[in-house]
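Appendix B. Chain record.
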Amino acid sequence: MTKNIKILGTGCPKCKSMTAIVKATVTENKIDATIEKVEDIMEIMKFNVMTTPALVIDDVITIKGRIPSKEEVLALLN
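Structure tokens predicted for this chain:
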């Protein structure tokens, strides 16, 4: 089943780092997932997130306000 991943952030360096880590983890582990970058502040507010970056997997907020490791992302996706 395809995982639906959203990365919430306005484009700051931390948001870009999280995006790179998530994309690399998905690619390296051949995970079936769609990755969407959400930069619109109104869309981000719908998730009730006040600190970015945030990682949403299948509509569940899993991480907010920090950059995860590849290992942590992989554990969340499995």
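Further analysis of this model is presented in Appendix C.
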